[in-house]
Predict the structure.
Amino acid sequence: RDAFARIRDLYAALVPEAASLQEPELVGRLITPVLDALGWSWTGWHVLRADRNVYPDLVLLPDEAARTQFLRSRDFRSATAVMEAESWTTKLDGPTPENYYPTAQLAGYVLRSRLRWGVLTNGRTWRLYDRDAPRLFWNFYEIDLAALLAQANAEDAFLWFYAFFARDPLTALGHDWPSVSDQIGGSALHRVSLSDSLREQAFDAASALVEGVHSGHPEWPGGRLYEASLVVLYRLLFVKFGEDRGLLPVSERAYAERYGLLPLLRRVINDRETLGEDHISRVRLDYWNSLAGLFT
């Protein structure tokens, strides 16, 4: 509760002016005080390798003894994580106005330091990267802390931030919290179960698409039906991914209410509920025309 109260008050005071702060000021007034509240010892601007001009913004250490040892030896085995901090308005996936990619920069720090954990933040969004993940650039845990703190149930939701970014879960020093490593191990088991479920759902979707394509083209051979159905399925998955990632204009009213995948799904569900599945035309191409427009 103490960490929540300190961080909540920090954001309440600084969010109104955060966009106008330069990176060093944001680090000093917001990011490092958050680290203090999370229990970290930290230090910054130290060369990872003397023969390369590579500087992590911050190095996170479990306690002051480890910090003293790191400052004396520059041995990253005493550290827990390296950290890259950006200004409030910087997009973490880049490129930045200086034409570099924060994710790539952090990945370089993690790999060269040989530490497992990397933290990337612009103050608003916080990401935790795991060197042991199969795809370091794309596998991360992300929280929009500013949005979280604005929620009505902010104190409860804050536990998700604390459980992944505080010192005790990442270092396994505390006995009251499961370590992040344990949580990732559990999520890996869940991911295997989830992938099996998704595989079954994908098979069901492909089967339904085959039936749909066959009703329109009964003369097509089985191989062609299967290939055409997979093309449609992959295009649907691509559109869904693009909408979820904000790569398509989901924030524009016309797209959100008329042209996107979600309004089409709403229309299909509404037609089934009001007309009944047996009364939906199998000849007209209204739904397909909407999809074809989305695919082009």
